[in-house]
Amino acid sequence: MKVDPSGVTRAARLTALAALCLVTVVLLLPAAISVSTGGAVPGFIGEFGRWLWPAVGVMVLVAVGLALWERGRGHETSNRTAALARVESRVKALLAASLAAQTQIKLGVLKQPAISVRVDGEEVSSRDLEAVYDRLGHTMVLVGPVGSGRSTLLRELCLALVERARNDPQAPIPVVVDLATWRAYGARKPTEFTAWLLREMNRRYGISRSAGTIWLRRERVAVLIDGLDEVPGVDRAHCESELAPFASVVSSTGPIDNLPSVFVEPLNRGQVLEYIASVSPRLDSLESALTPEIWERLDSPLALNLLALTHLDKQVDTIGTDFVGSFVVERLSGQRGAGPTIRALKFLARLGRPDLGAPVHMPQRRAWLPLLPTRPLWLLFVRAVPAAYAGGVCAVSFMTGLRLGLWPALVFVVAASALLVLVNKLPRVFHPPGRAHGIVTAALGFLAGVLAGLLVGLAGLWLGAIGTPWPYFVAYVFVVVASFFLALGFIPGDAPVPWALLIAAAPGVSMIWTGPYAVLTGMGVGFSAGVAGGIFAAAVGRVWRTVRTVQQQRMRQGRPWWVQPAVPVLGAIGLLGGIGALGSWGTALGVALGLLVTPTAARDYVWPFDALAEMAAEAVTRPLSLGELSFRRKALLHLAQDRLLLTRVDGEYRFAHVALRDHLASCDPTALVRATRR
Fold this sequence. Notes:
About 60% of the residues lie in helices and about 5% in strands. By secondary structure, it is α/β, with parallel strands linked by helices.
């Protein structure tokens, strides 16, 4: 076996670094500290005790030098063999999962039709693409329409370059990256292309950021770019300028300025007939069914594969020129309950993701919420949200009346209902298009609100009891100071301090008669309910801002008459828990003071309320996806994979071809269901 001398050198370097660190930390440094603090010199050191600190310094300098050497040069060859193995493994997996490979398995053929390319007016076989790559200076653009086989050629070229890199230590490592995951702007700031490229190299091939940075700077990596056509049009020019310094080969439907183009040639009639003959006798009847209209569109490997797969199960006289549509219909025909499957596939296709592993655990709501129809949004904002708020107020007021008395519960209901108007992050909602009563949704929302309200009430009672053991003076000062800061967040305007002082004076005077403990008990309930209500309101507001403006404009404004009164009315029902015990008006004052936190908790820029509101917004919207994707999402993905609509690479699902994804994204689910039933 051939030994890589650079690997041996690096192993020795790392061993020396580890040994130096071990000796310094375990032996020299403790001994030096012991001597410096008046301890005895270890016997094995003897008369060299005075050289302990200089030895520690030298060891540290040597360790730092080795670490810098490892960072600067160590990655140059250390991960090369492993990286080449990972690149080869992933690219082979991509080729094996492609629609072309699946067609070969299904039809029992050994290979796809040979693809030709044209460069400088000369037609060249795809087997000579590596020579074309060398002739063009290791930089080129593979140009061809969707389905022409560009991605396959790119991956086959990558495997050839992997083999070259194994035999030549000076040859760069080829990596295939998919631009479908890149966007010019991320969630909050521009996406830096180099950082994205390094992340992709690490995520796909295990190449560390430091090694990738060094390799890119020294041109030790050949970057093969796929998925340029997936970049949004507004970002296309920016993307091309960003990738130019790194790209070796780019797959695109059109030329790129300042990069030589290699055009993928369409299939000719002879190649098609040769392929049909190679599948004999399974496709013997296909040749006679090829009309002039079909021949005109049968010019790419994708079209040929789709036509061949469709022909296996369809009658010859039903073959049309819409190869993608016919294939999708044939794949989904005969399935029981095809409607939910088609709707789910359309939803996944519209997400526009290169891989579908995340939708098993749903991505962030901004990726999918604008894709929902009107009805689930109407049910959320008009039925579930008001009912949940009313249920929460009802539960908290019941627990407050049961434990603290009627007056504190009454103050809570009145104050919480008023704050719903004052801190109204709930948008002006709309009447539904058509009939959508949603009584069941409202009932479920109410029950969820009751459950959450019970938890909030228990937390508030626990908070109120914390101050019971405090000394009188400490509790008194705490109530006044807490009231002042709660009032600062509650009062709008540029000069809230005088008003906050005035509000804080109210409990200061009242506690002369009531004592601070009663006010503290009420403040715990009010604070807990105020934080929960503010976060809930902020979460619903965040969800509303995610809904597309066009969709909002299609909805008629106006709120049903019962939505606003429902909160105080259902909250008043909770007052039944306070019948028989009026309670202390000091506790009622504490409830009102604690509720002052609601506006602060509802703001989007106050930590930690902003983070909690984002989590609540995700939880609120998650049930809405069930109309598009059921709980049995993994079963759906497996089914689509069996029907050759999806493939799986490295545990990630993806559409077998972008043409299938685009067709499903733009299809009419109702019409497609009818077509599968014919």
